[in-house]
Amino acid sequence: MPQLNVAATELQCDSLISLCQAAVGCEFHIRFLQGPACEKLRKMGFCESMRVKKISNGRNLLCSVCGTRMAISKDLAEHVLVSA
Fold first, then answer.
1. CA 80 – CA 17 distance, rounded (Å)
2. Within a domain: 10
3. What does residue 43 show for φ and ψ, rounded to 5 degrees?
4. Is residue 33 assigned to a domain?
5. pTM of the full structure
């Protein structure tokens, strides 16, 4: 049975994309934060299970989290893994 849980976890991780890769105008659930910037992202409101909407894509990404619009760098957006 533990092998089944590992396979399910791996499948779930494979279906995640970074916020940088996400489509503009769509809403996503934040599933996982990775890398050294995790604490900074959490302090900004990017926490697991929160909803985020990607508003624009450019040098910086404009996002809406908890009704607040904020811009983050593409580098930070790479550390935010989301799913539909």
1. 8
2. no
3. -65, -25
4. yes
5. 0.77
User: How many separate domains does the chain show?
Assistant: 1
* CB < 8 Å & 24+ apart, contacts of 29-33: 29/82, 29/83, 29/84, 30/80, 30/81, 30/82, 31/81, 31/82, 31/83, 32/81, 33/79, 33/80, 33/81
| Secondary structure of residue 37 in the 3-state scheme | coil
Which two structure tokens, joined as six digits, stand for 76? 């930070």
CA dist., res. 5 & res. 50, Å (int): 24
**CA 82 – CA 76 distance, rounded (Å):** 13
The predicted-structure confidence for 20-55, as pLDDT tens digits, reads as follows 999 999 999 999 998 888 888 888 888 888 999 999
Are 65 and 76 spatial neighbours (Cβ–Cβ below 8 Å)? Answer: no
Both tokens assigned to 62: 């404009």
The pairing of strands 27-33 and 80-83 is antiparallel
Within a domain: 74: yes
